[in-house]
């Protein structure tokens, strides 16, 4: 067990953080060497297992990421954009793999992450599930096959605690659709319709977001044409799906050269 590569989970008290802890504890490929949360969080200084309502683990939750990273080979990070940027620099300084599930980055933050990735192994995806990554491949193919007579709309639904929209997954699907069409998503995307919007522009890729209850994550890519509609759909019903994808990415990335990778690379779908 002691020989397994060490991994640190950031944001351990979060929905994904706790799921990741459970998956690493059950893993035969990685071992948990650090548990990081935000300074001021009431889990800081507590035993991780007890804080999660389970058995004692002997691992204390810390807000000192630098110290926690010392024993690790990989960081799995599902937190918030500003936190992830900080962790990416620390991971790069120490030559650690950084698996990023965080979503909601601005373009400037994405540029910064890309700069850091030149000197470190970074895997980032708005969705770490096999199903969604396969759906991006299908979306690209369908968008390539159809012309702008077919309007592309991406509809996503998530729980009422989600803070960013469109979801990271919706943006991945939008990028795939834009790639299939041979256009830039920045030019084609239509977000946040309200009021007298005017008729839909041919070629636009529209986004709509539903927030409610405990929905884990649902995504439809709708190709609406004259007299017919094609709908590609993914429904996630268990967050463990994302956590397992992240662990797979961490193990895979340990053998890679510095650079930026996504889940298509990890899953061999590129
Ligand atoms: N790529 C994928 O497959 C998936 C991505 N996600 C994304 O992962 C992110 C987290 O989602 P979720 O777990 O639901 O959110 P939560 O809010 O439940 O968890 C985020 C955690 O990060 C902590 N955090 C925030 N800032 C820091 C910091 N500076 N240092 C350490 N910890 C910090 C939060 O602490 P506090 O609450 O005290 O602020 C919280 O514990 C989101 O961006 C979400 O979209 C989610 C699921 C799948
Ligand atoms: O915040 C979430 O919960 C999720 N976030 C990711 C996203 O933004 O797409 C992935 C998944 O849909 C759950």
Automatic annotation (TrEMBL):
<feature type="binding site">
    <location>
        <position position="37"/>
    </location>
    <ligand>
        <name>NAD(+)</name>
    </ligand>
</feature>
<protein>
    <recommendedName>
        <fullName>4-hydroxy-tetrahydrodipicolinate reductase</fullName>
        <ecNumber>1.17.1.8</ecNumber>
    </recommendedName>
</protein>
<dbReference type="InterPro" id="IPR022663">
    <property type="entry name" value="DapB_C"/>
</dbReference>
<comment type="subunit">
    <text>Homotetramer.</text>
</comment>
<dbReference type="Pfam" id="PF01113">
    <property type="entry name" value="DapB_N"/>
</dbReference>
<dbReference type="GO" id="GO:0050661">
    <property type="term" value="F:NADP binding"/>
</dbReference>
<feature type="domain" description="Dihydrodipicolinate reductase C-terminal">
    <location>
        <begin position="131"/>
        <end position="267"/>
    </location>
</feature>
<keyword id="KW-0028">Amino-acid biosynthesis</keyword>
<feature type="domain" description="Dihydrodipicolinate reductase N-terminal">
    <location>
        <begin position="7"/>
        <end position="128"/>
    </location>
</feature>
<feature type="active site" description="Proton donor">
    <location>
        <position position="162"/>
    </location>
</feature>
<feature type="binding site">
    <location>
        <begin position="125"/>
        <end position="128"/>
    </location>
    <ligand>
        <name>NAD(+)</name>
    </ligand>
</feature>
<dbReference type="GO" id="GO:0051287">
    <property type="term" value="F:NAD binding"/>
</dbReference>
<dbReference type="GO" id="GO:0005829">
    <property type="term" value="C:cytosol"/>
</dbReference>
<keyword id="KW-0560">Oxidoreductase</keyword>
<feature type="binding site">
    <location>
        <begin position="168"/>
        <end position="169"/>
    </location>
    <ligand>
        <name>(S)-2,3,4,5-tetrahydrodipicolinate</name>
    </ligand>
</feature>
<dbReference type="GO" id="GO:0009089">
    <property type="term" value="P:lysine biosynthetic process via diaminopimelate"/>
</dbReference>
<comment type="function">
    <text>Catalyzes the conversion of 4-hydroxy-tetrahydrodipicolinate (HTPA) to tetrahydrodipicolinate.</text>
</comment>
<comment type="pathway">
    <text>Amino-acid biosynthesis; L-lysine biosynthesis via DAP pathway; (S)-tetrahydrodipicolinate from L-aspartate: step 4/4.</text>
</comment>
<keyword id="KW-0963">Cytoplasm</keyword>
<feature type="binding site">
    <location>
        <begin position="101"/>
        <end position="103"/>
    </location>
    <ligand>
        <name>NAD(+)</name>
    </ligand>
</feature>
<keyword id="KW-0220">Diaminopimelate biosynthesis</keyword>
<dbReference type="Pfam" id="PF05173">
    <property type="entry name" value="DapB_C"/>
</dbReference>
<keyword id="KW-0521">NADP</keyword>
<dbReference type="InterPro" id="IPR000846">
    <property type="entry name" value="DapB_N"/>
</dbReference>
<dbReference type="GO" id="GO:0019877">
    <property type="term" value="P:diaminopimelate biosynthetic process"/>
</dbReference>
<feature type="binding site">
    <location>
        <position position="38"/>
    </location>
    <ligand>
        <name>NADP(+)</name>
    </ligand>
</feature>
<dbReference type="InterPro" id="IPR022664">
    <property type="entry name" value="DapB_N_CS"/>
</dbReference>
<dbReference type="InterPro" id="IPR023940">
    <property type="entry name" value="DHDPR_bac"/>
</dbReference>
<dbReference type="GO" id="GO:0008839">
    <property type="term" value="F:4-hydroxy-tetrahydrodipicolinate reductase"/>
</dbReference>
<dbReference type="InterPro" id="IPR036291">
    <property type="entry name" value="NAD(P)-bd_dom_sf"/>
</dbReference>
<keyword id="KW-0457">Lysine biosynthesis</keyword>
<feature type="binding site">
    <location>
        <position position="159"/>
    </location>
    <ligand>
        <name>(S)-2,3,4,5-tetrahydrodipicolinate</name>
    </ligand>
</feature>
<dbReference type="GO" id="GO:0016726">
    <property type="term" value="F:oxidoreductase activity, acting on CH or CH2 groups, NAD or NADP as acceptor"/>
</dbReference>
<keyword id="KW-0520">NAD</keyword>
<feature type="binding site">
    <location>
        <begin position="11"/>
        <end position="16"/>
    </location>
    <ligand>
        <name>NAD(+)</name>
    </ligand>
</feature>
<comment type="similarity">
    <text>Belongs to the DapB family.</text>
</comment>
<feature type="active site" description="Proton donor/acceptor">
    <location>
        <position position="158"/>
    </location>
</feature>
């Amino acid at each position: 067990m002691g020989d397994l590569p060490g991994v640190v989970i950031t944001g351990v008290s979060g929905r994904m953080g706790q799921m990741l802890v459970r998956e690493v504890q059950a893993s035969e490929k990685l071992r948990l060497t650090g548990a990081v949360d935000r300074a001021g969080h009431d889990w800081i200084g507590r035993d991780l297992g007890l804080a999660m309502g389970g058995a004692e683990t002997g691992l204390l939750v810390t807000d000192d990421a630098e110290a926690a990273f010392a024993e690790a080979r990989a960081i799995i990070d599902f937190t918030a954009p500003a936190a992830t940027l900080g962790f990416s620099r620390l991971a790069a300084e120490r030559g650690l793999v950084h698996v990023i599930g965080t979503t909601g980055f601005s373009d400037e933050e994405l540029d910064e992450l890309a700069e850091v990735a030149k000197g470190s192994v970074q895997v980032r995806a708005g969705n770490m599930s096999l199903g969604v990554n396969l759906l991006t491949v299908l979306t690209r193919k369908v968008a390539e096959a159809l012309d702008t007579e077919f309007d592309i709309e991406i509809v996503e639904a998530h729980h009422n605690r989600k803070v960013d929209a469109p979801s990271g997954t919706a943006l991945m699907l939008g990028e795939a659709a834009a790639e299939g069409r041979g256009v830039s998503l920045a030019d084609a995307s239509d977000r946040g319709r309200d009021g007298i919007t005017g008729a839909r522009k041919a070629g636009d890729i529209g986004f709509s977001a539903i927030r409610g209850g405990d929905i884990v994550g649902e995504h439809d890519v709708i190709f609406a044409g004259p007299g017919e509609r094609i709908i590609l759909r993914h429904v996630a019903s268990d967050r463990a799906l994302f956590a397992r994808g992240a662990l797979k990415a961490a193990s895979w990335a340990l053998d890679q050269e510095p650079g930026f990778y996504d889940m298509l690379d990890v899953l061999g779908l590129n």
